[in-house]
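#lab-general

N.A. 3:47 PM
ok so I finally got the sequence cleaned up, no stray characters, all 487 residues accounted for. can someone with queue access submit it? mine expired

B.Y. 3:52 PM
send it over

N.A. 3:53 PM
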Amino acid sequence: MMRRNERRAGLFLAVIAGLMSIMSSRGTPPGADRTVVHPKDTGAVLVNPGMGWVLHHYDNSITHYGSRLEPSDTVDDFPGISVVYLRLAWSYLEPEEGKFDWAMVDTPAQRWIAKGKQVAFRITCSESSLPNATPEWVRNAGARIHYFRPRQGEVENSPQWEPDFDDPIFLAKLDRFLAVAAERYDGNPEVAFIDVGSFGVWGEGHTGSTTRIAYPASTIRKHIDLYVKHFKHTQIEASHSYAGQPKGVEGLATIDYARDHGTGLRTDSVLVAPEGNSMDAYYTPILAKDFWPHVPVVVESEHYGISRDRGIWKDGSRYLQAIENYHASYASVHWWPREFLTENRQLVDQISHRLGYRLQLVEASWPSEVSVNSKLEFASRWRNAGVAPCLPGGHPTLTLKDDKGGIVGVFTDEEFNVRSLPVGPPDKGDVHGHETTFSLPSILKPGIYHVYVSVGTLTGTPRIALPQADEDGSRRYRLGTIKVSAN
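B.Y. 4:20 PM
back already:
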């Protein structure tokens, strides 16, 4: 009994000591309590940096899939589109050597850039639907070529040809073209990513639908090297098809080579093959495991209408499954966008809530009252409800505003980067808490202020939309109030 009473007395004294320590700390006056809030996920579809739906404006052909849109139509009714994809042949952009038609891409790009979207590029050198995707002047310069008929392999005297992808003249001309393209677009914040699109039919990294010529892994590495050489700041994406060029260890080593040179990974095969096929709707996502924690993965489906009409698409749930398994940051709208949306509205909503990252503030707390020239203790608990890390990263920031909306205090948690939040099942991922203390500036006057939270730069500029209510129009979200009293 004596020992039990001693333990109780010790516990009581420890609790009292802890309370005295809290009460005596500057910024938390005696008797002050804490405001605790638990924001609810509003269910909103978010457009955020480094993630989202990718709308195919040009899709190898300049008639697909933005050609039906009026110049003023940016498909604002499709939720979650963040990137417009411009995939077209090199021959469109440099019809004569050294003479470029950048208006082909800049014209549609500006429509979406004006709405705060980004663009992405794939510039191809072989197309099954064109006589030549590589400019004719490259052949006339002496580059080696191969004639083909689609899905028949090499055929002499065919009107269609593609370059020998290892030819030194072709590679030298491509090198100069990419140098000019990089001067315009590398590091441009309006560009989300660029594919290594110069190898294989449609830029997919294989020749299965054209010449069917097998190239060594060294050829693919040369193409990767050209993009890495010129695009030092813009994210580069490499095709999963490199794993099969050639098949086996050497092909997988090419994927490792791309990863080691900082590229992301993209798959173009989802729902091309029927269920039960050896591919089972898409290549194994094991290829993505070394990419998605660090760089974005792009998932592209088969042309939706083709997959639908062949009975492969079904309810589209395997598209969502692929996005989950690849931990995709981006997913394609690979069809006429409104037809795709109309026929897959529920699926689009499901994917939109998992694609990329989704930062949920589960709990936040702060003292209900602090004094000027003191400390403000802020505690928060966060979860990433998406399939991919928040690769752009960001820091939580508290902003205090007066009744007129004026900013009176900005406090950034420099020690916590939301990029560290792990991914997990929908709304069941691990919740990570963090506590920090901010010094209140001497310029802050006593009063009652509104407390807002945001995620963005170290200087407090909001960058990332959160699924919360009470947004101020600048990606700050109201949590409550705080009283600042005189010393």
